[in-house]
Fold:
Amino acid sequence: MRQRVLLCNGREGEGYTTTASRKRITGPMENRTWLLALVIVIWIVAQFGLAGWALRDLWQRPRVRGDNKVVWALMILMLPVVGPLVYSSFGPTSFLPRPGRPRPPVSDPEDHS
Structure:
């Protein structure tokens, strides 16, 4: 079908168009586009969630493997998703104390009453 269209240089002229090309320009987003947008959003949430968790855990730990928290923090921030997973597997070397848990009483070995 031949009709008047807007050319690349901004002037009107005659050319061929199809319904598919007009739909692609003015139609709604396709399902593939929505799916890609959803995958990107899930990736971003996973990346920032894991990085936030790993950095908070790194901040609270008294010791980490290699005794260099700066290197671990840079790795967590520079390697999306993989950095926090590597940190959680190899980084921590100490246990975190649990808040609100009562500590057992310490017995004095010299007290023989």
